[in-house]
Amino acid sequence: MHLSTYVGLLHTSLRTLADAFRQVGDGHAEEPDVHHICHVLATGIDGHVDRLAPIVERYGEHREEEPERLHAAGLDSTRSGPVGLLRDLQDLYMLASLTDITWTAVGQAAQGLRDRELLDVVESCEQDTDRQLSWLRTRIKQSAPQALIAAS
Amino acid sequence: MAQQLVPGGGMPDRIADVWGTRTPHDRDTPWPVRVDTHLEEGVAEGDVDRWVRSACVLCSNGCACDIAVRDGRMVGIRGRAGDVVNHGRLGPKGLYGSWQWNGADRLTRPLVREGGRLVETGWDTAMDRIVERSRRLMEEIGPLSHGFYTSGQLFLEEYYALAVIGKAGLGTPHMDGNTRLCTATAAAALKETFGSDGQPGTYTDIDSCDAIFLYGHNMAETQTVLWARVLDRLYGPRPPVVVAVDPRRTRVTEAAGRTGGVHLAPLPGTNQALMNCLVREVIENGWVDREYVAAHTVGFEELAATVAPYTPERAAEICRVPAGDLRRAAEIFGTSDRVLSTVLQGFYQSHQATAASCQVNNLHLLRGQIGRPGGGVMQMNGQPTAQNTRECGADGDLPGFRNWNNPRHIDELARLWNVDPLTIPHWAPPTHAMQIWRYAEQGSIRFLWISATNPAVSLPELPRVRDILRREDLFVVVQDGFRTETSEYADVVLPAALWGEKQGTFTNADRTVHLSEKAVEPPGEARSDLDIFLDYARRMDLRDRDGGPLVPWSSPEEVFRAWQECSRGRPCDYTGLSYEKLRGDSGIHWPCNDQYPDGRDRLYADGIFPTDPDFCEAYGHDLLTGGDVTPERYRAARPDGRAHLKAAEYTPPPETTGEDHPYVLTTGRTVYHFHTRTKTGRSRRLRDAAPGPWAELSPGDAAALGVAEGDLVRIESPRGAVEVPARIGRGRDGVVFVPFHYGYWDTSGAAPDGRPRAANEMTLTEWDPVSKQPVFKVAAVRVTRLHTPGAPRPAAK
User: Fold this and answer.
1) Is CB count within 10 Å lower at the N or C end of chain B?
2) Is 60 exceeded by the pLDDT of residue B795?
3) Measured between CA atoms, how close is A60 to chain B, in angstroms?
């Protein structure tokens, strides 16, 4: 069964995503909303890691040995300025999208296994991932015109 | 019953007796009339040449009044007996503040910066400078280089003209008002829950309620006439029970004790935990009107699930209030026949502002307490002119409560203004004030027109605001009645006419529209804000699609008629109003149209809400992050006229106390300075009553710090500090209160000269994710005793 591979992938994605939110939040601390909400969302993702723990215990997690093929690397650093903010938010969007679709894949397996506990975890966590994507999309749409047209 | 208030005449001094003589009455009987009058010393009623119709602008009540004019000067004021809002009463601010600015320091000529100094000039020179810079930036960068930061203090006609100029003429999304600091959360909470802005209740609900809940609303000091109305119920038969949520002890919280209600004093920043608990208790105890909820709302299951963990014990721990008090407050809400709730800055300017305010709406929906006498919600405003920024679109909204995310609404505006729909910025919500300032800080906004507001005192984190205003690459226009802390940084200063010197309409917090006539000529070369905006449009040669002038108007009444067309069919429909009709006995509630020719006093009595996807003002947000709900998802929820029960978990505030900064700072208003120092600050009686700021410490904290009443203390946050006298009492342990709106124009000019005193030196650059209202009520500070000068004057006794 390859579910353990995907549980491992999810586990790693979540931790990478939480770190990335914190990094972007701190890297753009001069944008107070970005700073605060990135940290709120990162704390939420820590909660997902906790909720996944019993699942990891049950199914085990198989760490993929070719990280560049399955795992998205985290962020090395953040950029600066209005366009830098836009790019960093886009990076977060990519990472959150990967997490989102991984939840979907794991959720499908949970359906097949009729695993109610896992289904509950997937359902509530995927809603939160959706919230992350929705905020990122909103903030990117707000920032883009000024960054791309008027910023020096 | 008339109260004559002539100084020295032995009549009540309303500085000492803020709310005036009681006129108690029973539930469901009309509030008795009491006419308050105040004339300048030496002027008798017989000396008055004429009385000119207006309404007071000093708090959100908007009390109807007549201005006494003699020899071309305003010499007094009188409440209008027949008006639905005040039944003749005026508060100390209305009586002493609104008309007494005939002083010598008014701005009477435009000023321009020459060699670093502001010097007097003529209108042509001043306007040419503005237009030259504006045109150059429009050519080089385009409309995103322009920002307009206006007020909550102009008239409807002025806001509408400004909105058309900015959105259809230049095409900039960067327009907002100081209403962002004040009522943005009221608007946001109404939009999230009901689908559109618009106050459901009316002030008349006070006459009929059995319980009144005040959430972060020190009504006794911020809306004195409305509090007089509450007092008249409290002193009459069958008084309502009062419940107050406020970290300080105030007249309101004392009334809660006297009436068998509850005073909840949560730690600042924890309102959402408290509200989640109240909602949970109402659900758990079966006080929900299931039928109403099923027929008229969506989202119950998610709300119930979100609030479930907030037991009284858990909320008590977060908020540091007794669990029993939370249970009792919920019981009063859940079991009273008619509950009225009012919400103000203790929620709006705090952490999770919109989420907490939405919970108040939720409580009312859960019990079906909406749209009927005594059962109402009041998401309050700071001033009666503030509603008009929201309606007319001079702030972060579109005119007529239109939805930026609905292409049909944009097409309507484009047809109305005869411009290309692409001219009207609607790719995202209009830029909120805090973001406008950030863009100016980063240099992408290079032209900032500030009208009728004083951001160098009112915005958070003043050292930062002063740095932005000082920027070489930012061209600043300031338009006001007096020189202010902000005008000292301007490139051009335009002298504006004030209340009583110009004509226009405005709408108070309960949707009552009043007409304010011009009583006297503005001083010197000062012009109405409307004339200034129209002059700019003409000089910029702003045109519509067919080459005609975009703003062809020249009088307020013409703009009013244009606005009526813009409001047609929208929730704030003004088509049934006219200047002539507003010259009748009383103010009129909107909507006023064919269906409601005399206005509609309460909205949603029928349980039908403006949530239809084609009609609603907003598709809403995630309350935790502010992420937009997409049109597709909104439609999928099928609200179809039902209200949204929205929920959010509690999260800790962005700044919490620690070893370095162990106290929570909360800022706010007290009776004499509120909205008088933000406007002119020139009323002698009000200034004498509260000449300078102070810091309130709890007795326990004062003892621990070794601070006695009157000692000079330094309050310091990571951003800045104030040095003010201490006052002991009222607050809860761990919390320091400092009144804001005190600046430097009357001490040293534009910035602190050795002794900082503006509360906003210390506050955070942080805002609510949904309403974008700054968090003025939560910051971490430390307190140091400096020395012991003379004792400060007391606040309202």
Assistant:
1) C
2) no
3) 31
Q: Is B624 on the interface with A (CB under 8 A)?
A: yes
Does A127 lie at the interface with B, CB-CB under 8 angstroms?
A: no
**Whole-Å CA distances, A107 to A15, A100, A113, B324, B455:** 19, 10, 10, 43, 51
- Interface check for A31 against chain B (CB to CB < 8 A): the answer is yes
Right CATH number for B2-96 from 2.60.120.10, 2.20.25.90, 3.50.50.60, 1.25.40.10?
A: 2.20.25.90
Residue B142 to residue A152: CA distance in whole angstroms:
13
pLDDT at B680: 73
Q: What is the pLDDT of residue B713?
A: 97
**Residue B676 pLDDT greater than 70, yes or no:** no
How far is B448 from B452, CA to CA, in rounded Å? 13
Other Cβ atoms closer than 10 A to A91: 18
Interface residue B629 vs chain A (CB under 8 A): yes
**B 658-687 → A contacts, CB under 8 A:** none
What is the pLDDT averaged over residues B563-591? 96
pLDDT in tens, B703-735: 999 999 999 999 999 999 999 999 998 888 999
**Nearest-CA distance from A82 to chain B in Å?**
8
Does B5 have pLDDT greater than 80?
Answer: no
CATH number for the domain running over A3-150: 1.20.1260.10
Where are the domains positioned within chain B? 2-96, 111-180+385-570, 184-380, 663-787
All residues of chain B having their beta carbon less than 8 Å from the beta carbon of residue A25 are none
Q: Which CATH number applies to B663-787?
A: 2.40.40.20
Distance CA B26, CA B32 (A): 10
Whether A65 has a pLDDT exceeding 70, the answer reads no
Q: Which residue is closest to B138 within chain A, CA to CA?
A: A150
- Our CA-based measurement puts residue B152 at a distance from the nearest CA of chain A, in whole angstroms, of 24
Please state which architecture CATH assigns to domain B184-380: 3-Layer(aba) Sandwich (3.40)
What's the CA gap between A134 and A126, in Å, rounded? 12
Calculate the average pLDDT of chain B. 94
Mean pLDDT of all residues in B320-331: 98
Q: Quick one: pLDDT band at residue B6, thresholds 50, 70, 90?
A: very low
Domain ranges of chain A: 3-150
Q: Considering the entire predicted model, what is its pTM?
A: 0.96
pLDDT category at A75 given cuts 50, 70, 90 is: confident
**Whole-Å CA distances, B255 to B22, B152, B228, B311:** 15, 30, 12, 27
**Residue A66: what pLDDT?**
58
8 Å CB contact of B144 and A146? yes
Q: Is the pLDDT of residue B677 over 90?
A: no
| Residues in chain A, total | 152
H runs (alpha helix) in B122-214: 123-140, 156-164, 184-194
Q: Does B622 touch chain A (CB under 8 A)?
A: yes
Chain A residues touching B439 at Cβ < 8 A: 146, 150
Minimum-distance CB partner of A33 among B141, B145, B769: B769
Phi-psi region of B123 (alpha: psi -120 to 50; beta: other; left: phi over 0): alpha
Count interface pairs A-B at CB distance under 8 A. 78
Closest Cβ–Cβ partner in B173, B444, B764 for A82 = B444
Q: Which candidate from B428, B651, B764 shows the least CB-CB separation from A141? A: B428
Residues with Cβ within 8 Å of residue A67, at least 6 apart in sequence: A73
Cβ contacts (< 8 Å) between A132 and chain B: which residues? 625
* Residue A43: closest C-alpha in chain B: B651
Regarding predicted confidence, which is higher, B241 or B677?
B241
Say whether residue B422 is in contact with chain A using an 8 A CB cutoff: no
ipTM for the whole complex: 0.94
CATH 3.30.830.10 fits B111-180+385-570, yes or no: no
Cross-chain Cβ contact B428/A142 below 8 Å: yes
Inter-CA distances, B242 with B26, B232, B502, B603, Å: 16, 13, 40, 24
pLDDT (tens digit, 9 = 90+) per residue, B35-45? 999 999 899 99
